[in-house]
Amino acid sequence: MRALLAIERADVCLMLIDATSGVTDQDAKIAGEAHEAGKGIIIVINKWDAVEKTTGTLEKYKKEVYNKLSYLTYAPIIFISAETGQRVDKIFDLINNVANMNSMRISTSMLNQVINEAIAVVQPPTDKGKRLKILYVTQATTKPPTFVIFVNNKQLFHFSYERYLINQIRANFGLEGTPIRVITREKDKKEG
């Protein structure tokens, strides 16, 4: 209950994970709540000094964390030691960066340019001879960045294509540490 209240009040949530025990079910549950609430998220691995390291330990550990928290692959991971103070000072820069990303506003023209380039590379899906047409995209809100995509037919807008477009937005604008929301709207046929 306290965790949910803290998530509600926060702009950026730090998911503190004990490096010696890894991601627990409780960690995953709280991370899921922060993700659903649209908060900026940073995964902080504490007690990194207590982990025995060999070549590739850090990358392997990151991969394990992202496997258990697959919906948080956009969240940066920082490895710290609260006991020794190792990299603790870097957290504040990361918090500011993620807060800025979570409240970023992207102009409609820049957004549509990126989406049009993405469409040129990977054509929208078709079904029974009908092709999805993406008419235009605009940003509705921030915290988290929420985009409205106007299409000719919502049924043709497959989840995998939505994920592709989100990945293109991330690749072009960063948006590290923040979830991205997409709202699909069908353009009224009577409109010009």
Describe this structure in words.
This protein has 192 residues and is α/β, with parallel strands linked by helices. Helix content is 39%, strand content 21%. It contains six helices and eight strands; from the N terminus they run αβαβαβααββββαβ. The strands form three sheets. It has a three-stranded parallel β-sheet. Helix 5 (108-121) packs across helix 6 (159-173). The longest helix has 15 residues, at 159-173. It is elongated. The model has no long low-confidence stretch (mean pLDDT 93).
Please outline the helices and strands.
Blueprint: H1 2-9, E1 12-18, H2 25-36, E2 40-46, H3 57-68, E3 77-79, H4 90-102, H5 108-121, E4 126-127, E5 130-131, E6 134-141, E7 146-151, H6 159-173, E8 181-186
Helix pairs in contact: 5-6
